Amino acid sequence: MTALTRVDTATFPVFTAFLMAHSDAGTRDYLSHTDLKALFLERQGAEAWFYGDGARPQAVISLVRSPRHDGCIVIPVQILTGDGRVPTADACLDAFLDHEAAPAPLPRLYRIGEQTHQPVPADRLAARGFARIAGLCEYQRPAGPPVPGEFALADQALAAGYTLALFDDPAGLPDPSVLDRVATIHNRTLGARGAAADWTADVVRGRLSRPGSGLIIARRQAEVAGHILFQQGDDGILVIEACLARPHWRSGAVDAMCRLMAAEVSAPRGEKVVACADATNAASRRAMERAGMTLSAERHLWEKKVGAGERLLPAPTPAVLMPEAAQRPHIQL
After folding, report:
1. Predicted pLDDT at 112
2. In terms of DSSP H, where are the helices of 163-241?
3. Which of 134, 203, 133, 214 lies closest to 168 in space, CA to CA?
4. Residue 187 belongs to domain spanning
5. Residues 148 and 281 in one domain
6. d(Cα 87, Cα 89) in Å, to the nearest integer?
7. Any alpha helices (H) in 193-324, and if so which ranges?
8. The pTM is what?
9. pLDDT over 70 at 332, yes or no
């Protein structure tokens, strides 16, 4: 079987060139405004791998190993093929899972998301014991100001003393202490769900450096209670995240921030708002529905739990690649 090779500082330019060559336009745009070495190599738990010859890989793998509150290591994995063919994705998947086969002292949860423009090795995933489940739910709200019936809890938050601020000018960012608080809320919120939780004030500042990006802050007295981080996309305003510190849950602050976004971002720009939530996060989904958003798409993922001391299922048969002449063009990250 073709081997995996760990990407390091010396080979990182080959990895980034592969990403830029084989990702779609939206992903390339995102990558061009991101510190790629920090994202794929330097952040805690991050790994990147070549499948095939490290100088001319057939595919690349990126992942993050993140400990969850219950001790389980959550491992979201992305596979990007160079030719967009299922056999290549199958072979790359087998190589990765075989590399992970040894028992580990802690339980592991592997998550492999379906990507719109990349092949999904569905049969291979099923054969290796993965289950297909609902992953992300995408919601959209048409462009325009608030309308009656939306943001039902916003006035409750304002009456309780919450105040709001919008920062959408790169020349007028909030002070570093606010950016640091945003990073802290992000890390606590996502870390509790087993996602990567390694933001700093500099990471937030970098997100806001992109044209069309912005930040909405909710405060209770002097404390930053929560935030919405957004960016301008090709198909509307994309909500990167909406987070609220736990003591402020059910306060209505999320509704208030969403209403401000509708009034001062969506309406003036004439752009719809697009946001995603984990399919299992009922509170986030209800908040988006209160904001006048409707479900527009569902994205699935494949999940496999491996207990402490257990092994992954072995590959049932070797993956065989088709001749080069039979290969189709790739699609996306």
Report:
1. 95
2. 176-192, 201-208
3. 214
4. 138-298
5. yes
6. 5
7. 201-208, 253-261, 267-269, 282-290
8. 0.76
9. no
